[in-house]
């Protein structure tokens, strides 16, 4: 079935098909339509789930952690300052090795106050121990969300699915909905009332380090499973004969592809590596890029973009353009100009599109 859906609605449809036992959420722009749609589905009987209206995002993650600990399939969603508020609990979800799925409608974090899209909130998740996928369009928002339930339960690691705020969350595209039979819940352990078990008691030194190591190792190893079953860590666009490569993630990727097509029409051998996942980071793919690399970022760490630093950590020197922070969305022409100066050797090591 094909439907005209925003990315928010596409996420909600995927959650409906996954049939979570518990959904907990607190509204925040631009994520709110996801959980509003889900609450309508629950109220109408289209979705047999327990919808918990909580008093904060911190509580939303707390509820799904509790439900997941008891063996329930769970879902929540947030954005921006909501993610910042639930940040503490996100660490608990990962450290407890719980299958949890969360949608993130990526939005700028103040100050100054801003409700528009960038990746500052998304990039703050990198060290949590979560698998993090980033959709390019509404179709991928649907597919990634549906897959997230299976992937999270395969590896006992929470999974976040990010969509770009407003440019994706509130714009509609044709989405092909696939109805699949979701297998029974898989979970490494369950803790039920009456069990004489403590979860996450105080853990010292070597045991604590081992727990963190095991999570980091399994997160890294999930890359092989993602490549085999879940569409791969990256999409390669016109890279087969490229001398130049652009690395990007999220909804801006389509505009970068348009700019690349313009350069291809001029005879420039340039392509795009779109990061479908930023955790686990696609190190192998990045190391196989052509020698000339430009990274386009929508979040910064100091003066440089976050993804630029991560690509450099793989041993790949790169030029960097920081663009699209706070909803200052670059046009295709602006991106083309940056790429043109990149291939001509006139781009600085780091530039900001302001």
Automatic annotation (TrEMBL):
Protein name, per record: Pyruvate ferredoxin oxidoreductase
UniProt-recorded Gene Ontology molecular function terms: oxidoreductase activity
Protein's UniProt keywords contain Nucleotide-binding: no
Example GO biological process: response to oxidative stress
Organism: Archaeoglobus fulgidus
Domain Pyruvate flavodoxin/ferredoxin oxidoreductase pyrimidine binding, chain residue ranges per copy: 14-227
Alphabetical list of CDD domains matching this protein: TPP_PYR_PFOR_IOR-alpha_like (cd07034)
PANTHER family in the record: PYRUVATE-FLAVODOXIN OXIDOREDUCTASE-RELATED
Assembly behavior: Heterotetramer of one alpha, one beta, one delta and one gamma chain.
Keywords, alphabetical: Oxidoreductase, Pyruvate
